[in-house]
Specification:
Elements (H helix, E strand, L loop, with lengths): L2 H30 L6 E9 L2 H12 L4 H15 L9 E7 L6 E6 L21 H5 L10 H12 L4 H14 L1 E2 L2 H10 L5 H7 L11 E2 L2 H13 L2 H4 L1 H13 L6 H5 L4 E3 L2 E5 L2 E5 L6 H15 L6 H22 L15 H8 L25 E6 L5 E7 L9 E2 L4 E2 L40 E4 L3 E5 L7 H13 L4 H6 L3 E2 L7 E3 L6 H9 L4 E3 L8 E6 L4 E6 L6 E9 L1
Parallel strand pairs: 16-17
Antiparallel strand pairs: 1-9, 1-20, 2-3, 2-10, 3-6, 4-5, 7-8, 8-13, 9-10, 11-12, 13-14, 14-18, 15-16, 18-19
Helix pairs in contact: 2-3, 2-6, 3-5, 3-6, 6-9, 13-14, 13-15, 13-16, 14-18
């Protein structure tokens, strides 16, 4: 057959390809209520780094959905914000599938290695060796983020994993710019880095200047392996072998089976109701969802929304105190321990709230001296696409830069999430959180977390919200939800001053700058011990939707360096 004989067949093939694309686009056009093949709708992304937000939009504009964009944002944050998350960490992705109405939480939390045991961080005298649980490979749980990216893409996305990971791979090769926050975190954690981490993250041996490019060639190769081989690209093969070898050589206890046995778990989110809004939030092993619903239930009983500003702050401190007490007593990985079913019941919350005196602070039980933590770790992003799919994701490596240990030849910075277990019952961890035996260390167990990605929704309005901040995450999300219910604009919600109480230590922590002096005085006059912090905390990323007019707004916390944006996405 001659070349000219092929031309009619090519024309037919091209026409059939065009017809298939056109037919595939028809459901989108019908859903949008349009009468042509092009529709424009708004999508929004709020994340802790501009490059990550841009990566998400890049994937949306290539035809991906919110879940594809979540892969891109998660991976880009793993590259460009190593202070807060990474492939060597884990997290929770709270998803809403607009087509099916399903809400699900992907649990990519780290797990304890097979050789882990209850007393692994205790010195001979029974005290906790906090250096072992925070620095180096002994502090690292088995990472869950790579497995989460694969599940997001393969089970919920539209695009190939390789396409959604492409922006992060590019950023890893081309580099991201050092920021003032990066410099501060290097000053805080850099002394605990291994040689590989120093070579990559502090390339000239001194804190890099603002604007310096941090390139991560090995991390790009690791991402490329995941893009090509999926789950096996990280948990088996060359990357896995390098991780096991490096961890064991540095005194760690990982084994190959720890990696091959790791899988993401799908959890039913925690749900509740407040002031006519449905709340969907994180399930265990995050304690955030249970505490959020418990505290909202207490506030409903107290009629918080109609209280004056000073009484509101008092109520907040008291319901936080009671919520965190329940956390310390009962919460842990629900696959290993039985969790009381009443913790999110309104009747139980009323019992707790009924003990609150409007004019006098309660007294928490005396606890041991706490290790002073910084609470500046973790990351969060929120996404809504043109189809109404939603993602609220909070990811972490625990302390800034995790354990400070990068596996040579992989670029993977390992977490120090093992410190989120209770190394010794009743002894505070690095965030001053006290846990009992429910959160004790066991092989394969997932440590209790505070990460609280959340949806809040009624017939008229929607909020997608979350934040980093260690033990303060839950109380920040609580205050964000309350500001939303009060009718504040997205940009105002993220900018509001924040307070925190976590049962022990028995004090109310206040941001500086923050609350008016008269409100602080009113708290003190009720008997609260005030801890004036010399800084602000949190890095909230949120999206709101006014369903009555379709207006989408996105906001990135002014305390951070993130970027929130709403774009019109055109699909052909």
């Amino acid at each position: 057959m001659s070349k000219t004989d092929w031309l009619p067949l090519r024309k037919i093939a091209n026409f059939m390809r065009y017809l298939r694309i056109l037919l595939l686009s028809l459901p989108l056009v019908a859903t949008a209520g349009c009468d042509n093949s092009t529709s424009t709708h708004q999508a929004a992304i709020a994340s802790a780094h501009p490059l990550a937000t841009q990566a998400g939009f890049e994937i949306l504009e290539q035809g991906g959905n919110a879940f594809d964009a979540a892969v891109a944002v998660s991976a880009a944050l793993a590259v460009a914000e190593p202070t807060g998350s990474g492939l060597g960490g884990g997290g929770f992705w709270l998803l809403h599938d607009a087509k099916t109405g399903e809400k699900i939480m992907l649990d990519g939390r780290e797990t304890a290695p097979r050789k882990a045991h209850r007393d692994m961080y205790l010195n001979a005298d029974g005290t906790v060796n906090r250096d072992l649980s925070l620095n180096g490979p002994m502090a690292a749980g088995i990472p869950g983020t790579p497995a989460g990216l694969v599940v997001l893409s393969e089970e919920y996305g539209k695009l190939p994993l390789s396409q959604s990971l492409a922006p992060a791979i590019r950023i890893a090769r081309e580099g991201f710019e050092v920021t003032p926050r990066y410099q501060r975190m290097i000053g805080f954690r850099g002394q605990h880095f291994n040689d590989e981490a120093k070579a990559i993250l502090i390339p000239d041996g001194e804190t890099p200047e603002v604007g310096t490019l941090i390139r991560q060639t090995d991390l790009a190769i690791t991402l490329e392996r995941i893009a090509e081989f999926g789950h096996a690209g990280f948990y088996q093969g060359d990357t896995a072998e390098k991780m096991i070898s490096a961890v064991q050589s540095a005194g760690g206890i990982w084994e190959a089976e720890d990696l091959t046995d790791y899988h993401v778990k799908k959890r039913h989110p925690i749900t509740g109701e407040f002031a006519g809004y449905n709340v969907t939030t994180a399930a265990l092993p995050s304690g955030g969802g249970i505490l959020l619903i418990n505290m909202l239930n207490q506030l409903s009983y107290l009629d918080y929304l109609n209280a004056d500003p000073a009484l509101r702050l008092h109520y907040l401190a008291e319901v936080m105190r009671r919520g965190y007490h329940e956390r310390s007593e009962h919460l842990g990985d629900s696959d290993f321990v039985t969790i009381p079913s009443h913790l999110t019941d309104k009747a139980f919350a009323e019992t707790l709230a009924s003990t609150i005196d409007d004019n006098q602070a309660s007294v928490s039980e005396n606890g041991p001296d706490a290790f002073q933590g910084k609470g500046r770790d973790t990351t969060h992003f929120s996404i809504i696409d043109t189809e109404g799919n939603k993602v609220a994701a909070t990811l972490s490596i625990n302390y800034p830069f995790g354990s400070g240990f990068i596996v040579p030849g992989t670029g993977v910075l390992l977490n120090d999430e093992m410190d989120d277990f209770s190394a010794k019952a009743g002894t505070p961890n690095a965030y001053e959180l006290v846990s009992e035996s429910a959160n004790g260390i066991e092989p394969g167990k997932r440590p209790l977390s505070s990460m609280t990605p959340t949806f809040v929704e009624n017939d008229n309005n929607l909020l997608i919200v979350g934040t980093p901040g260690g033990s303060r995450i839950i109380t920040m999300v609580l205050q964000g939800v309350l500001h939303f219910v009060d009718g504040l604009d997205a940009s105002d919600i993220v900018a509001q001053p924040r307070l925190h109480h976590q049962y022990l230590p028995d004090q109310v922590s206040l941001e500086t700058p923050g609350f008016d002096d008269d409100l602080v005085e009113a708290l003190a006059n009720r008997g609260h011990e005030i801890n004036h912090l010399n800084r602000q905390f949190g890095n909230m990323q949120l999206i709101t939707l006014d369903k009555t007019n379709g207006e989408v707004k996105a906001a990135s916390d002014p305390r951070g360096e993130g970027h929130a944006e709403v774009r019109s996405i055109t699909k052909h």
